[in-house]
Specification:
355 residues; alpha+beta; Thrombin, subunit H; Nuclear Transport Factor 2, Chain: A; 3 domains; six-stranded antiparallel β-barrel; six-stranded antiparallel beta sheet; 7 helices; 20 strands; globular
Length: 355
């Protein structure tokens, strides 16, 4: 089995802030969003209807594990979960990381947050909300106090399934710049339109910053709500129907497909362990638009190559012909990375994600 140097990270949503802005400002901003709640220990979720919460599929799955029913606390009152609906196209470690959670009774005293339905997310100012570990982008030190915080960041780029944010160090970035860090997934990225806050993204995955998770330079991926609106509406309007989630399949062999060949080239570039090899891989396998617009692409992929030592392939997952995820076993656990391609452009790579 191939031994490589590779790494990835599941990046959930605990708010990490600018080092030059006091924490109380982030706490005050977080207090404005009581509809963002902790979904037990599984992650965060957002109230988007009287009885509906939206979150990440990998978070919602943990709420749907039999008896007794899971409960979620909203403004000091507990509500039972009676239904969890994962996106039907989501598979473990794959895209469409979004789900809806239905409560047995209506939530009172908290106004649901609307859903973002437009397609103008790029460059918009978003508010990222979450509970848990807090700290500053210049350090890996974190405090777990369970308090809700919120930060702001601009949407750097979008594709059909994702919104991307980068954590800029001062003086760049927004006045309340921040990012998700290690902790809960499933929390929202909220874009305000004409004074109305709307959930535009769901925290799913991300990439380390210069000094680790949630530090300056980190890039975070949120599932794009606007491209999943039809599914969300269909579920919320038909609470009695429960779409079935297809089972994930895995092997330990990289498929001899266009995306499989790109992945194999990636592993060979990592094995070479040089800047030249990774630069050549990016220029030969990524679309020119992607590598020209993302100057940190090569350093980020090189950083991945240096983080994982003597890993072996634990499973190969292919959710569609446009993406391929591989899980690797290391001495410290399992790590997964996914490559995404555009079949209309010779399957040139357009993205990569860590889980």
């Amino acid at each position: 089995m191939r031994s490589i140097a590779l790494a990835l990270l599941l990046v959930p949503i605990h708010i990490v802030r600018r080092a030059d802005v006091p924490d109380d400002r982030y706490l005050a901003l977080g207090a404005r969003f009581p509809g963002v709640v902790a979904a037990g220990r599984a992650g965060d979720a957002t109230l988007v209807g009287d009885q509906w919460l939206i979150t990440a599929a990998h978070v919602a799955r943990a709420l749907d594990r039999g008896s007794p029913r899971a409960t979620i606390s909203i403004v000091d009152k507990k509500y039972e979960v009676d239904r969890v609906v994962l996106h039907p196209a989501w598979v473990d470690l794959g895209p469409h990381d979004i789900a809806l959670v239905h409560l047995t009774t209506k939530v009172k005293g908290v106004k649901p947050i609307s859903l973002y339905r437009d397609s103008k997310e790029r460059s918009s100012l978003a508010t990222i909300v979450g509970h848990g570990s807090s700290g500053t982008g210049d350090s890996r030190r974190r405090v777990d106090d369970g308090k809700r915080r919120a930060a702001t960041s601009r949407v750097d780029s979008v594709n059909s399934g994702w919104l991307y944010f980068s954590f800029d160090s001062p003086p760049r970035g927004t006045a309340m710049e921040g990012a998700p860090g290690a902790g809960d997934s499933g929390g929202p990225a909220i874009i305000t339109v004409n004074g109305v806050p709307k959930v535009a993204g769901i925290s799913s995955a991300g990439f380390d910053g210069r000094n680790g998770p949630g530090t300056y330079g980190a890039v975070d991926a949120f599932t794009r709500v606007s491209t999943h609106i039809a599914w969300i509406d269909s579920v919320m309007s038909s609470p009695a129907s429960t779409p079935k989630k297809p089972a994930a399949s895995s092997t330990k062999s990289i498929p001899n497909t266009p995306i499989g060949k790109r992945y194999d080239a990636f592993l060979k570039a990592i094995e070479a362990s040089t800047d030249e090899a990774m630069t050549r891989f990016v220029h030969e396998n990524f679309s020119s638009k992607e590598y020209s617009s993302r100057p940190a692409l090569v350093p980020n992929l090189r950083r991945i190559g240096g983080m994982l030592k003597r890993a072996t392939i634990d499973g190969v997952y292919s959710s569609t012909n446009t993406s391929l995820a591989i899980r690797f076993r290391t001495s410290t656990g399992s790590l997964t990375i996914e490559l995404v391609c555009d079949p209309a452009d010779n399957c040139l790579l357009t993205d990569w994600r860590r889980y």
